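We read letters as residues; the fold follows as tokens. A sample entry reads:
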Amino acid sequence: MIADALDYNPETGDLIWNQKMGTRVKPGDVAGSVDGYGYKIIGFKGERYKAHRVAWKLHYGEWPSGHIDHIDQDRLNNKIDNLRVATRSENMRNQRVPDNNTSGVIGVSWGRVPQRWQAKIDANGKKRYLGSFNIKEDAIEARKQAEKELGYHPNHGQPRIAGSIV
């Protein structure tokens, strides 16, 4: 079992091999490599495990019942105080602004017809139109108010950190 082969440091978020694992892995080595989505993945006996889920298992003694949300949105920060069990919806409400976003705010975009700022939000799996605005800041305010009303995480929509892979 993977939990028997690793030790977890909740203050650093590191998973450390506590036994020799083949020719390349020795006790004391930090486990895992980063996948294409920016998560640390650990290979063990032909299976792949997300490090944040293993960290949860080692810290609390059971596999998480739902999604694990990285509160600070850094997919490599597996410190226990940065992890929380969340529904898919709660996890989606704690996102950074996507790289391809042109307004700088999730849910706010420039509409070509009419040529005004549009504000939208996902509410319980359905898109909700919040209005169109002449002034970008008014669209942003409508979006932020809707986020507050729907219980979005305060980190939601924060800008990406330069050089970050989150």
In short: The helical segments are 2-5, 51-60, 88-92, 136-150. The domain at 96-150 is CATH 3.30.730 (GCC-box Binding Domain).
